[in-house]
Design brief:
Blueprint (H helix, E strand, L loop, with lengths): L9 E7 L6 H9 L7 E7 L5 H9 L6 E7 L5 H10 L5 E5 L4 E2 L3 H11 L5 E9 L5 E5 H5 L3 H8 L3 H7 L8 E4 L3 H4 L8 H12 L2 E12 L13 H8 L4 H20 L6 H18 L5 H13 L2 H5 L3 H9 L4
Parallel strand pairs: 1-2, 1-4, 2-3, 6-9
Antiparallel strand pairs: 4-8, 5-9, 6-7, 6-8
């Protein structure tokens, strides 16, 4: 009879900025977890309110959890703030946290069990229940707001999250837990990427990821989120379609170039097949960035890429093909 597997140690990386309004509820929901995290790392980006005083006050009621606090002046920005917090984590698992959400009871137990049962998985993210500033449900989940398809979820469950994440990011940091060993491959975090999408794609490249398709947190939407989620109306989708394209496409191309360079530097840890898919994605983004200014003149190149399957493999299919034709340049 084999010995029972022990629960992995867990650190929480929580980043703050003027979060006093909601930080107490979030901290209690984290520190009351069973099993509790062994470590809480709070990295604060130049708060002008009493966020850190409230962190210390609440954490003092849970002396068994090691508290580490950084106070950044000047602020580091979202990605580098999370990188600082993550680098200070010592647990086998690292759970990311925003300052204004609420974790569901049993969340850490669920994630710990998943990682224990699946040693090949490097990162797991979940769905979230969207709530308003007062914690009242908005009637849909994060996955519904993002329009996550059954096919995308099936691909992730089947171990091919890399293909999904080459098309678009579905990893939300507030819903994410990953192995500390991933930091070896992901750090330093590049400036052009948001921390969660970078961790997700690197995890999918060097190992595998998975998705828990039910909410494990209440994800608060209050109008002041640094990064939030909203369910777009038809009008909202149309506005997105006609946003200027130059800056967005330049960013997508630059990010793919950075990713390709990192995967190549990781050598044998990343399969040649994934490197080649990243190169193909970069070529696709270069094509999109180089489309002419005239809308009608874009149609031949977009049509060729669409018929070749590149919009299906590396973008959001017909939606992005139409977007590339109709979007203004600036």
């Amino acid at each position: 009879m084999s010995a029972p597997q022990s629960t992995p140690s867990i650190s929480v990386a929580l980043c703050t900025h003027n979060g006093a309004a909601y930080i107490d509820d979030q901290l209690v929901s984290i520190l009351e977890q069973v099993p509790a995290p062994q470590q809480l790392v709070v990295s604060d980006d130049a708060s002008s309110d009493d966020t850190i005083a409230r962190v210390r006050e609440v954490a003092a009621r849970y002396p068994s959890v090691e508290l580490t606090v950084f106070e950044n002046i000047p602020p580091l920005g979202v990605t580098k703030n999370f990188e600082q917090a993550i680098r200070a984590c010592t647990g086998e698992l690292i759970a990311l946290s925003d300052q204004d959400d609420v974790w569901h009871v049993g969340r850490l137990e669920l994630f710990a069990a998943e990682f224990t049962a699946r040693p090949e998985v490097s990162l797991i993210h979940s769905d979230a229940r969207l709530v308003d500033a007062h914690g009242q449900p908005l009637g849909h989940t994060l996955a519904e707001a993002l329009g996550v398809s059954a096919a995308e979820v099936a691909s992730i469950h089947a171990g091919d999250a890399f293909s999904v994440l080459l098309r678009r990011n579905l990893v939300t940091g507030a819903c994410t837990v990953f192995r500390r060993s991933l930091v070896e491959y992901a750090a330093p975090f590049p400036a052009g990427w948001v921390h969660d999408e970078w961790l997700g794609v690197i995890a999918a490249a060097v190992a595998s990821t998975d998705f828990i398709d039910h909410p494990t947190i209440d994800y608060r939407q209050h109008g002041a989120n640094q990064i939030g989620a909203t369910k777009l109306s038809v009008a909202g989708k149309f506005r997105r379609m006609v946003e200027p394209r130059r800056a967005r496409n330049a960013r997508l191309e630059a990010n793919m170039s950075v990713l390709l360079d990192r995967l190549q530097r990781l050598g044998a840890r990343v399969s040649d097949e994934k490197v080649q898919r990243t190169l193909a994605k970069l070529d696709h983004e270069r094509m999109r960035s180089s489309l002419p200014e005239g809308h009608l003149r874009r149609i031949p190149a977009v049509t060729r890429a669409f018929l070749a399957g590149n919009y299906r493999r590396y973008s959001r299919g017909p939606l992005d093909a139409v977007r590339d034709v109709v979007q203004p340049v600036d």
